[in-house]
Structure formats: C-alpha cells, structure tokens
Amino acid sequence: MRSHQLIALSVAVALIGGCRSERPPSAPIPVQTVDSGIEGTPVGDDRTAMEAAVDTGAAVPPSSVAPADSGQTGGVALAPNAPDSYTVKHGDTLWGIAKVFLRDPWYWPEIWQVNQQIKNPHLIYPGDTLRLVYIDGHPRITLQRGMLERGGAARVEPRVRSQPLESAVTTIPYEAVAAFMSNPSVLDREQIKAAPYVLATRDDHVVISDGDTVYARGFKGPVQVGTHYNIVRVGDALRDPDDDRIVGYDGVYTGSGHVTRPGDPATLLMTESTRESVPGDKLFAGGVDVPLDFIPSAPKVQVNGRIMAVSDGVTIIGQYQVVVVNRGTRDGLAPGNVLAVLEVGGTVRDTVDKGYLGGMSRLHAKRVQLPNERIGTFMVFKTFDRMSYGLIMEAKNIIHVADRVENP
Fold first, then answer.
1. pLDDT for 63
2. Residue 127: domain span
3. Residue 172 maps to a domain
4. Helix crossing, 94-101 with 49-59: angle to 10°?
5. pLDDT at residue 388, as a whole number
6. Residue 211, SS3 per DSSP
7. Residues 39 and 154 in one domain
8. Considering the domain boundaries, does residue 14 fall inside one?
9. HSE-up of 371 (CA within 13 Å, CB side)?
10. So what's the pLDDT on residue 179?
11. What are the mean pLDDT values of the chain's consecutive 10-residue runs (408 residues total)?
12. Is residue 272 included in any domain, yes or no?
C-alpha cells in the first residue's frame, strides 16, 4: 500500500514539474501547448461564437466585468468567463470567435499562437477547436484542426484539407458585404472608372423593363455567359463633411440582368428593372471583390473621421450594416482596422448660477459641450484614397450619419 502511494506521489510531482503553462488565479485551468498532431475532445454547444459571446455578456452584470488589468497580461484583457476552448461552427465569424475569448476582439493577433506546421494557420474552419492556454504566464489561443464526430464521440482521422477559401471562417459576415459590393450605394472614382457600362438598349427603349435587352462595354476580361450584373446609376457627389471635398458619388440601383452573349459589346437580358437605365450606367457583378480573411487590428496611426453614408439610405444604423467613413488609405486606414463609433455630445446652457426665474439671464448662460459617448464598433473591409467601406460590428445605441469614428 505504501509503495502505491509513493508511486502516485511521484507521478503527481512529475506532472506538476513538467507543466509549462502558468496562469493568474482567476483564469481558466491551464493546459499545455497543443501539439498539432494530437487532438482531444471538442468543447462547445450549438451556439455560434457571437451567440455565445452575447449570452456570456448578458450573464455578467456590468459591475462584475473585469477591469482593464484583470485577467490580462501584456495589455490584453480576457472576456468575462472566457472558456477553455471553443469549437468553430458554421455561421461563425472571426470577430465573434475573438469576442468569446477577449474583451476587445481586435486584440486577437496579440494572443493568436500560429502553428507553423499547419498549412494556412491563419485560416479557421468549422470543426476546428480553439484552446485558451497559458505560455510563460501569457494567454495564447492555439488551434487544433477539425475532428469528425462519430456516434457522439470524437475520433481523429488523418486527411488532406482541400477546402476553398469561402469555406473558411471570415472575419465579418460574407452576406452583408456581398450584398453591398454587388449593389453599392456609394461609389468611389476608382470603382466608377473600372466598371463596365451600358452602351445602348435594343430598339432604343427609353424605359427598360424585365425581358428587355441591353448592350454593354468596358469589361476588363472575357465575359462569361450567365454572369449576373447589377446596373447602378452614378448619382450626386458625396462631400467630406470636414473639408467639403468630393470623395465619392451616390449609387442608384436601376435594375439587373445576366449575360446572354459575350463579345464587344456584350448582350444582357434584363431580369429586374426598378427605374430607367440609360447609356453610361455602370455594371457591378454580384459577389465580393475584396478578401475577407483579414485579422482585426487597431489603426497604426491616429484616425479621426465621420460616418458619411449608410447602405440602403436608412437613417438609423445597427449591427452588420455597411457604412462609409470619410477616411481612407491616405489617412492610414487598411482592411481589418477597427474604429470606435462615438455619438457627438450636445451642448447645454449652464444655468446653475443664473437662477431659475427665466428671462434673459438663462439666454445668456454659458454653453457647455458635453463629451462624446462611445456607442459602437466599426471595422473597415475596403479602402479607397479618401473614404472606406466598413461594417458596424457592435451597436450599443442608435448610430447616425455624422457620428464620429476614431481609434478604439
């Protein structure tokens, strides 16, 4: 019996001595760095990452949220109740996954432990498991490539991954970006110059309706039969609210159609028409022409700008709506950059020393500017010289055109 106890004690001491992970007392249970060839049991439920993050946040009262230096090292704060691991699901985005582990999702690159033995280590796929570990006291997220479930249990199977980029988890929702890019409501000069255009209509129709034929030119490469295009009118100039310079133009959707005959000009059959299409209107193919596998990051320079426009012309902006800001590459912005959205504080009259009897004393009271309040988070997905497209990732209050954006 005594010998068995000595053996057990020796094993325990050896395990403790061999562990390389350290952690703060309040952090999750540490695990060793995951070997790329060893995969364990996936952890998680049926919720997507964003649903899990929202549920976790709702379960923690505001007063109990960790302060900036709690549960963090190197300036990176973990989210309240950050899990030991998370299994990636269909419908997840990198932003949602990062929010599960971190209080500020744009710090994801600071804790992402790249495994050089994995091809495309920055790409994450449904079925992969992300684990929170501690290496030399610092939190790190490591990747275990996907497991196949059989009968409720996980079994490791050697296999070659040959999935296209579209099957990988994107940083932001693909659908929201695709809808805007195929039918942009704000156009940059570069887009206008590069897009093909309507040359003429068959039989000189003034008002084009479903089933009518149009001819188009200006394609940069061979045109494929069946390719779908949206037709967009170049509208009024869009001016920077800070210096009144023209930075873009309104895009007005007029209809859509598909290519029935290639050539120069190419022939398109209209399948939808909402208003008159005329020569010079621009064609934009459906889908996304920008990479969506970028990593969230704060701008490298100080950025201060405003929201100039929003897709669909709405006045109240919420989560996952595309907005346009008056800052671009010349201001240091790049795809993946994250900005805070702030509601501009109003002005009030300081009548405390003027009494409450009304009259001229209140009219002459000093006006005081209230501070700006943070109401959301914005991420850039496409930049131009003087403006950028981006997505509202989080909205704590109603966001409007003219609200300010700046470094988070």
1. 31
2. 20-167
3. no
4. 30
5. 93
6. coil
7. yes
8. no
9. 3
10. 79
11. 45 39 41 36 49 46 35 67 88 86 84 69 82 86 66 41 57 81 85 92 68 90 91 91 90 91 93 86 83 83 91 76 92 93 86 60 78 91 91 89 92
12. yes
CATH number at residue 402: 2.40.10
Q: For residue 393, which amino acid is it? A: M
Assign 3-class secondary structure to 308-373.
EEEHHHCCCECCCCEEEECCCHHHCCCCCEEEEEEECCCEEEECCCCCCCCCHHHHCCEEEECCCE
- State how many domains the chain has: 3
Amino acid at 79: A
One-letter amino acid for residue 320 of the chain:
Y
Question: Under a CB-based contact definition with an 8 Å cutoff, are residues 229 and 195 in contact?
Answer: no
Question: Residue 1: inside a domain, yes or no?
Answer: no
pLDDT of 120 reads 67
Same domain, 317 and 278: no
What count of residues does the chain have? 408
- The secondary structure element, H or E, covering residue 105 is none
**CA gap 156, 127 in Å, rounded:** 12
Q: What is the pLDDT of residue 25?
A: 42
Cα Rg for the chain, rounded, in angstroms? 27
